Amino acid sequence: MDPFPSPATGIGTALGAPQALHVPNAGGHYQFRVIVLGDAAVGKSSLLRCYAEGPGGAVPCPTVGVDFYSRTVPLPPAGRAKLQLWDTAGQERFRSITRSFYRSAAGVLLVFDLTNRASFERVPEWYREAAGDRAAAFVLVGHKSDLAAERAVSAEEAARLAASLGMAFVETSARSNRNVELAFETLAGGILRALGRGALAPPHNCGAVRLIPSPSRPRPLAQGEPQGRCWC
């Protein structure tokens, strides 16, 4: 199974055959900064906690400002990618805080509530605000798919919006742990493909993408160089 799927439909199936990824430093380790955006009460924190800590956790309190999670995933053929997962508050009064995180994100999950049409209709606004002129990868997530009787947005309509914005669409449920892994793996795949195209060249600071070379062979010390220097 491809650990980083191609863009997915609303029911969580991959479109097209998996493509080989040309990834710089594929044998080393990366750190990707990921931000999760969307209206208040769409389930961003529940989604993140389910992915980072596993299903069945306590219901999180509303996010105040920004919260942080992390998880490490395998990077074929022999590396790893640590996802820094930033959970943002959806309330307007916190927008000035969360905007400061947009510019340093390699990937963005745009989350709306499948039972709340207003949260879906605001997706383009969130996208315009977060995208700017940057090359970050985006995935649209329709959350709370377990509440089928209360659905207000069809999978077909959401998939059309995602396609118009140039991103994948995945339906998820933190309550039933449905497609939670797929959503984040799809985003990680988008980041890797952007790296392969050169659109997300790793910066030299600890920003959106951090490259950590694989410690395959110790580098000889230069004359007079102290031991224990950090090379990252």
TrEMBL record:
Record has Nucleotide-binding as a keyword: yes
A Pfam family recorded for this sequence: Ras
Annotated stretches, region: Disordered: 211-232
Family annotation (InterPro entries): P-loop_NTPase, Rab_GTPases_membrane_traffic, Small_GTP-bd, Small_GTPase
Gene Ontology MF terms: GTP binding; GTPase activity
Keywords of this entry: GTP-binding, Nucleotide-binding
Gene3D superfamilies, A to Z: P-loop containing nucleotide triphosphate hydrolases (3.40.50.300)
UniProt keyword annotation of Nucleotide-binding present: yes
Family matches, as PANTHER family: DRAB11-RELATED
Family under the similarity heading: Belongs to the small GTPase superfamily. Rab family.
Full protein name: RAB42, member RAS oncogene family
